[in-house]
Amino acid sequence: MAEARPGRIRLGPPDLLGDRTVVPVVAGRHHLVLVRDAGRIVAAERACPHEGADLSLGHCAGGRLRCPRHLASFDLHDGSVSPGWSFRALRLFPVEVEAGGLWLTLDGSLA
To answer: Where in the sequence is the domain holding 56, given as residue range(s)?
Structure first.
């Protein structure tokens, strides 16, 4: 059974996403999306860095999260935006899947 440790927040049960690929969550005071892609789960900031569109309304395919407003997409390994767009990368945060739940690991940009 996993235990809470400093720098980690329990997001919910391991099956929190159910059959969905993109789910909005709140971790502390931070609004994020959980994204499942190819058997892994990653957390990302919920607001698109371009104009703040709600990425929980986007969709994921081929390792990319697509913004529902402008159709820019973000690489789920490094957050980089698709070619043709000139704004910062999407912030991503590691998620650990354990028997006791999904855990978000905080870093300096989210803490």
So the answer is: 8-105
